[in-house]
Design a protein that fits this description.
- The chain is mainly β.
- 11% of the residues lie in helices and 31% in strands.
- The N and C termini lie far apart (36 Å).
- 9% of the residues are buried.
Length: 74
């Protein structure tokens, strides 16, 4: 399971790329309460044209939850 550490938080990601090394990147982020698997039905079609990176946002899937409380923006 690939993990990247970003500002002390481990973020799970996946790369799907059958389009080749020169294809443009497509970045997919999950919605609230979901993980990278929400994109699975679309990956085959996307990967034919793009190098696809999808990741679990903080506190979702296999990514770490934030180490401190988040502030709401009013």
């Amino acid at each position: 399971m690939p993990l990247a550490e970003v500002n002390g938080t481990r973020i799970h990601y996946r790369i799907d790329a059958t389009a080749g090394d020169n294809a443009p990147w497509l970045v997919l982020s999950n919605s609230l309460g979901a993980d990278v698997s929400m994109w699975t039905p679309n990956i085959e079609a996307f990967a034919q044209h793009y190098r696809v990176v999808r990741y679990d946002t903080r506190g979702h899937g296999h990514s770490d939850a934030p180490p401190r409380p988040l502030r709401s923006i009013s």
